[in-house]
Write a structure and sequence with these properties.
Helix content of chain B: over 70%
Largest interface: A-B, 30 and 31 residues
Largest sheet of chain A: 3 strands, antiparallel
Helix content of chain A: over 70%
Shape of chain A: globular
Largest sheet of chain B: none
Structural class of chain A: mainly alpha
Order of helices and strands of chain B: HHHHHHHHH
Number of strands of chain B: 0
Number of strands of chain A: 5
Strand order of the largest sheet of chain A: 3-4-5
Radius of gyration of chain A: 21 Å
Oligomer: heterodimer
Shape of chain B: globular
Distance between the termini of chain B: 42 Å
Strand content of chain A: under 5%
Radius of gyration of chain B: 17 Å
Distance between the termini of chain A: 26 Å
Number of helices of chain B: 9
Strand content of chain B: under 5%
């Protein structure tokens, strides 16, 4: 019930933020407050607590029904929703001081509402449909380059797989002797998630989107939409455990993960701009996440969840820095020496270098892999080094003094310092973010 | 309303083979030409005849909703195309749009001389071949041969169109053609009204997104 109220509240706030769009900071503050309140509410309120509404007693975690479909709040979706709302709140706060369009708050809140619905609606076929709606809706945050078109294309192409797989699974329930149905369903689900996650060879939308669009809009897509895709994938694995029992599961994910990380690292060495570097860093991180998923088991899944959380912080920090160093082309907040520091800290976190927050989960993955596949660990480390080479090639542009741009305000400096401190502080004390 | 539904049902019983032929022509208009008016006519024909084929697999009331969604989608595409004069994919080849009835004829006559028409024609021929071979070799479950052929044709044609487009509007049209093909097939597998509604909503949002990207790019 709490979820249904939360989604309704998000959409109400989105409408209000739309009418307040001329007062950009007010609308973003409203968005951040609503999002943070929902995030802490979902995380802290016990789900068995009851409340009375319109004379009827409801439990907080009780499944609600919306047009005949159930909205459920389980332990996994609780983590997913908390992650979604808190990263949304952080993005709205950053957008308040850094660059963003006047519709960022309204579209962002609507987007969070759709993503939250995708996480809680059941059966999963509806989750995929709502996720597609969210992907198409998030295009409104972009500025009209071909990167947005590619992103939309890959998400639309991902739609048929899970829907047809749902029908195949229904058929399998009627004729359990036809194992071929399960194999086809696994293939279709895998293909769709590969398209949505930007795995090699379906990766072109990731750097294209990051290169041409505003960093904070891209950050919302990579962290919120990308995070929701990951949580939905974990949900799929929980609902259909046979998916991960396939003999090809581990080897396919290892090959895809290494391929994505290596291609991301190699392309990251090229000098194609800060935005593209963010895209390649996300590709390397996605490759690592896929590898962790391929390891399966409790450790693999815990690691997976930790990596989704640390990745969001890395993307947010880097996007905040890029907004300040001038990767965004509209309404830049002015030059700040902390912009280059934040972009560097964010990239180091995505590359998994110590002492940033990204290192914490990456260290876990390396330890998990090292005994069985030392060569894989070496290749992954080299992929991360590729990003460092790209950073070194881009850094002179960030450090160049551009006197034509005004100096950023003290508040921008403080915000950037805070994100950097968070990226490093959480790397030194990871227990505040993960391993709880 | 009753009469309209009965009329659609009657057409669908009589006209499955002609509907597939019209779909091929419509796909040709959308894929081969670059003039937005021809493309719009192609899209309108496609939505109507996909609706006609839909009556073979789902309830006529749901078909009516799909036709309404198609009408809204075509209106939005038409308005966007008009606003940007075809999203940069029409004109006299020098980036300057040509207007007026005489110029329109000139564009139509010059169509055969456009340098990319042979490639686009080949793409259409390839789509037809893949669709025919696919529907023979891997027939789609729960639908007749002709409906399966139409699904393959739209899905493959949509992919080609999205891949060859140079503007967000062209890509959006390709995605809509692809989604129509899938919708026609999936309607037979999952006749639920909620799924049909959500698929329609996705088509509407994809149109909206493509229109937004096109207009934002022009600005």
């Amino acid at each position: 019930m709490l979820v249904l109220i939360g989604i309704g509240l998000l959409w109400l706030a989105a409408i209000l933020a739309y009418f307040l769009r001329r007062w950009r900071r007010v609308s973003l503050l409203l968005a951040a407050t609503v999002s943070a309140a929902l995030g802490f509410g979902i995380a802290l309120i016990p789900l068995d607590r009851t409340f009375v509404l319109l004379g009827r007693e409801f439990a907080m975690g009780e499944a609600a029904t919306f047009f005949g479909r159930s909205l459920m709040l389980g332990p996994l979706t609780q983590v997913g929703l908390t992650f979604l709302f808190l990263s949304g709140a952080a993005l709205f706060l950053l957008a308040g001081l850094l660059e963003s369009g006047e519709l960022y708050a309204a579209v962002g809140l609507g987007e969070l509402g759709l993503l939250a619905a995708a996480l809680v609606i059941r059966p999963l076929i509806y989750a995929v449909l709502v996720l597609e709606l969210a992907a198409a809706f998030s295009v409104l945050l972009l500025r009209g380059g071909m990167g947005g078109t590619r992103y939309l294309t890959f998400f639309v192409l991902a739609l048929p797989g899970p829907l047809v797989a749902h029908w195949l699974l229904d058929m399998y329930a009627l004729t359990p002797d036809q194992a071929g149905l399960l194999n086809t369903a696994s293939l279709l689900i895998g293909l769709s998630f590969a398209l949505m996650l930007g795995l090699v060879p379906f990766h072109p939308w990731v750097p294209a989107l990051a290169r041409r669009e505003s960093p904070l809009a891209v950050a919302l897509i990579f962290s919120a939409v990308g995070g929701t895709v990951w949580f939905l994938l974990l949900d799929y694995l929980q609902t259909y455990p046979w998916l991960s029992r396939s003999p090809y599961w581990s080897s396919a994910l290892t090959a895809l993960g290494i391929g994505t990380a290596v291609i991301g690292g190699l392309l990251g060495m090229t000098r194609r701009g800060w935005g593209a570097l963010l895209g390649y860093a996300v590709m390397v991180d996605t490759g690592m996440l896929v590898l962790a998923l391929g390891k399966g088991g409790v450790v693999g899944l815990e690691l997976e969840r930790a990596m989704v959380l640390t990745r969001a912080w890395g993307v947010l920090t880097m996007a905040a820095g890029l907004s300040s160093v001038g990767a965004g082309e509209v309404s830049e907040p002015g030059r700040s020496p902390w912009g280059a520091v934040a972009a560097t800290a964010g990239l180091l976190s995505l590359a998994g270098f110590p002492p940033t927050v990204g290192f914490v989960s990456r260290w876990g993955l390396y330890r998990l892999l090292f005994l069985e596949q030392p060569l894989t660990v070496l290749v992954l480390l080299l992929a991360s080094v590729g990003l460092l080479v790209g950073l070194l090639r881009m850094l002179p542009y960030a450090l160049r003094s551009d006197s034509s741009r005004p100096r950023a305000s003290l508040a921008v400096d403080l915000l950037l310092m805070l994100t950097v401190a968070g990226a490093i502080g959480l790397g030194v004390f990871p227990q505040f973010l993960i391993y709880r | 309303m009753e009469t309209f539904l009965q009329w659609i049902e009657r057409i669908s019983k009589l006209a499955a083979p002609p509907a597939v032929v019209v779909l091929m022509v419509a796909l040709g208009l959308v894929l081969v030409t670059r003039q937005w008016l021809s493309r719009m006519i192609g899209m309108v024909l496609m939505y109507f005849f996909v609706g006609v084929l839909h009556t073979q697999v789902i309830r006529p009331e749901v078909v009516l909703v799909k036709l309404l969604i198609g009408a809204v989608v075509c209106l939005a595409l038409g308005a966007t195309g008009q606003a940007v004069r075809g999203g940069g994919e029409t004109g006299n080849g020098r980036g300057e749009p040509e207007t007026g009835a005489r110029s329109r004829w000139r564009i139509l006559l010059r169509l055969r001389w456009r340098e990319d028409v042979p490639l686009r024609g080949m793409a259409l021929a390839a789509a037809l071949l893949i669709a025919y071979a696919g529907s023979l070799r891997f027939p789609l479950p729960q639908v007749s041969f002709l409906v399966g052929l139409a699904c393959y044709l739209l899905a493959v044609g949509g992919l080609f169109l999205a891949g060859m487009a140079e503007t967000p509007l062209g890509v959006g049209m390709g995605l809509l053609v692809f989604l129509n093909g899938f919708d026609l097939f999936f309607g037979a597998l999952e006749p639920s009204l909620a799924v049909a509604g959500l698929l329609g909503l996705i088509q509407f949002l994809v149109t909206f997104a493509a229109a937004y990207l096109t207009l934002a790019r022009v600005e």
